[in-house]
Amino acid sequence: MGGGHYEAPRVPTRQEMVDAKLPLHYRDTCAGLLIPLNECRRATLFLPWKCQDLRHAYEKCQYEEWKTRVELLKNEKWWAVAAAKTGWSCRLSRLAHC
29, 32, 77, 90: which one has the fewest Cβ atoms less than 10 Å from its Cβ? Predict the structure, then answer.
């Protein structure tokens, strides 16, 4: 991790997530950081000043994933507008209503 580039953590297997009892809505690409964070929290009785490095790493991962989703949505919207302006999607789909 050099030069300010973000490197996504290893995604745990389904079995690892089941064993860690992660709820389904937390089983994303950042789950590899959440599992050790939750273990640390349980070991330190959820003291807020403990496990800060793990928490910050998890929050950074969540933020980077959010930025990725926003960028994908922007690209998707851009392609939809471009296709609507040029009629490109109609030529590809060959639908009668276009």
Answer: 77
Rounded to a whole number of angstroms, the CA Rg of the chain reads 20
Give dist(CA 62, CA 9) in Å, integer: 11
Nearest 5°: CA angle at 89, between 86 and 90?
90
Query: Considering only CA atoms, which of 92, 66, 67 is closest in space to residue 79?
Result: 92
Residues 37-94 have pLDDT tens digits of 999 999 999 999 999 999 999 999 999 999 999 999 998 888 888 878 877 655 555 5
Q: What angle do CA 21, 46, 27 make, to 5 degrees?
A: 30
Report yes or no: 28 and 86 within 8 Å, Cβ to Cβ.
no
> Confidence band (pLDDT; 50, 70, 90) for 18?
very high
